[in-house]
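Minutes, project check-in
Item: structure for the 272-residue chain
Input as provided by the requester:
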Amino acid sequence: MIEYLSRSKQHTELYLTQFGIEECIPSHFFGPAIRSHFLLHYILDGEGIFEVDGNKYRLQKGQGFLICPAVITYYQADSKSPWSYCWFGFDGTLAELLLKQAGLTRVCPILNCGKDDMIYKYLKLMAESNGNHKTRESRLIGLLYLLLSLLAEYGPVTPIEQQESRAEIYVEKVKEIVETTFAQKITIEDIARIIGLNRSYLCSLFKQQMNTSIQDYLIRIRVQKACEMMGNVELTIGDISRSVGYNDPLLFSKIFKKIKGVSPKHYRAETH
C-alpha cells in the first residue's frame, strides 16, 4: 500500500508527501538514489541494510532510518529474513527541527523506538482518513505531528542537541506570536508570558539566534506589513497605522521613516 499526496499550499511548515507499507521480497533494494524530501522508514519485521555517507547500518524490527533530501542512500532487504516496513515522506520549514528533537539528522539517521504498534496505528489512521475530503489535509498533518512527537519522546537527544533545539523552538514561537499579533498592543512581557519564559532569558535567546532584539523584530514586521498594505488605495495612512499596532499615526510615521528612510506617504507615492 502506498499513497502519494500533492504538496500542501496552506501548510508550508509541515506536510506529508507520501506514506505506505511494504513486505519486501528477499534482497529487494532501492538506490543508490536521492530524494527531494524527508523519508522515514520504520521496520515492522525482518532486517536489512541501510547505507549513507559511507556508513553501513544493519537494522531490524523496532529500528528505522531517515533519508534526508538530496542525500545519496541505498537500502536492501535481507536475503533470508527480508524486512517489512512502513514509511512516511514529508517536508516543510519545521521538518528538520522536529526530526532533530527526535535525535534524527543526516549524521544520526538511525531510529531506535520500539513503538511499532503506535507508528502502525498512525499509518492506519492516515489511510482511513481518505473519506474525509474536507478535513483530510489537516488530519494528515495532525497525525504527522503526533508521529514526530512520539519519536521525540522516545528518541535519544544529547544535552547539546536538546539545548539547541529548545532555543530554536522558543525563537520560532516568538516569531509566530509576533507575526500573528503584530496588529495588537503586544509587549515583550506579553510574549514572554505566553511562551512561559523569563523575559530577560527569552530576549537573550532571541538575540543569540536572530542577531536582533525581539522589539526590533516586532517593529520590522509591523513596517513590512504596512508596506504590503500600501497598495490598497482604500486604506489611509491612519488606517494602515492602526492595522499594524500603532494608534498614533505620528509615531507610526516616525518609526516607518527610521526603517525605510522615507515617510509612509512618500513610500506609497514612490512604490504604488
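Outcome recorded: The first strand starts at residue 2 and ends at 4.
No further action items on this chain.
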